[in-house]
Amino acid sequence: SGQNSFRLVLFVEVKHQFLRVTKQYLPHLARLCLISTFLEDGIRMWLQWNEQRDYIEATWNCGYFLATCFVLLNLIGQLGGCVLILSRNFVQYACFGLFGIIALQTVAYSILWDLKFLMRNLALGGGLLLLLAESRSEGKSMFAGVPSMGESSPKQYMQLGGRVLLVLMFMTLLHFDSSFFSILQNIVGTALIILVAIGFKTKLAALTLVVWLLAINVYFNAFWTIPAYKPMHDFLKYDFFQTTSVIGGLLLVVALGPGGVSMDEKKKEW
């Protein structure tokens, strides 16, 4: 019992030391991870211009001009949004633009009817919501006309919404079979996502999920091991960068905390 207590104290101390050392770098790393899927997809629109245009034209029967406009909008919207976010200019507008890209692609690529991909897109939206909350400067509210309980109230609810949406990614990783490893992974994973969603021991739970998701991403989505001409290469590459973006959202939670609407914050009042 004494040994276990010592290990727990040591683990918590290591976590605090990690956060102290990485505090100034973590938000930058989080933003880079978060926009990675948009950056990769924007570059893909450029490299696969004809294929993307032909796919949209054939799927929606919308004609050459509209299909070209769709690809151009995705390319400029995503790469432009990434540049603005990384340079810390007009971040709120960039986030809204990327929200629009997610919505557009959800309809255009029929993601709306695929629950797994829909949940991942919603998780990506959760990451953007956290980025929007982070960029919202004190004293300047985008919700000036909305009644609120306090100056930071909209920011707090954005952080809550971002946390809840982020955990949808992990719902797509649960395996429903009877092997011991799968059962253990499901129990631990479910416990961690509940902790992040309700905001209890949030930084520790989010950091643990980052490590878990990073390991799963590198192991299962190793697109670099598949020849570029095979369709599986593009599929795994898409999955890899989308998962990396969710990792970025979780790193924002680690760096900034859960916000006011959380059990961690309520504990301070108690």
TrEMBL record:
Its record classes its membrane topology as: Multi-pass membrane protein
One GO term (biological process)? Golgi organization
> Matching InterPro entries, A to Z?
Surf1/Surf4 (IPR045214), Surf4 (IPR002995)
Say if the entry is tagged with keyword GTP-binding: no
Task: List membrane-spanning regions.
Answer: 64-86, 93-112, 180-200, 207-228, 240-261
The UniProt keyword set, sorted, is: Endoplasmic reticulum, Membrane, Protein transport, Transmembrane, Transmembrane helix, Transport
Pfam families given for it?
SURF4
> From the record, what ranges are coiled-coil?
none
Q: Keyword Transport: yes or no?
A: yes
The cellular location(s) given in this protein's UniProt record come to: Endoplasmic reticulum membrane
Q: Name one GO cellular component term.
A: endoplasmic reticulum-Golgi intermediate compartment
Family recorded in the similarity comment: Belongs to the SURF4 family.
The protein depicted here goes by the name Surfeit locus protein 4
